[in-house]
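Researcher: Please translate sequence to structure tokens.
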Amino acid sequence: MNLHRLIQAGQLPARVAVVIASRPCEGVELARQAKLDVHIVSFKKAGDAADYSDQITARLTEAGVELVVMAGFLSMWKIPPQFAGRVINIHPALLPSFGGHGMYGIRVHQAILQAGCKVSGCTVHFVTNEYDRGPIILQRTVEVLEDDTPETLADRVFEQECIALPAVVALAAAGRLRIEGNRVRVLEARGET
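Model: Translation complete:
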């Protein structure tokens, strides 16, 4: 909804072509209230992982999607070649630490606190067919405070996510991201010297 609000305000040069969720959730209801095109593609109802991925790919293709933003999407979608380098995700930690299968939401912040980290943050990265392993585009940090709980840390990280994700969408929309191996280069804006 953060992206949608920025788009509606004319602050982000993009459009939300379709919203796909793997199950009913608050995000689905918010997207419906905003009159966005919402679809639930259930992993449990799909015949298998390939069928599930095919259903998602078909919806994205039908909607003419150029960039896929996986914000809070937890099921494994096998990214087909035509979407390689066109899928981004936001993760609530500084990857490659505290990522991978099963590391999402409050679990991440609990692990960070248990590890005694002094800094945390969020990572926007390109998505590959391996959880949280794609090339990192942008990271934003927050200090881990002595009295933090997983919830207070999550709140501060989320504030940074709301800055980082739109910034990356804007860079992608401007054609300023280039993947070079496992690194992402941010190109200068056109017209800059």
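Researcher: Any highlights?
Model: The longest helix spans residues 150-173.
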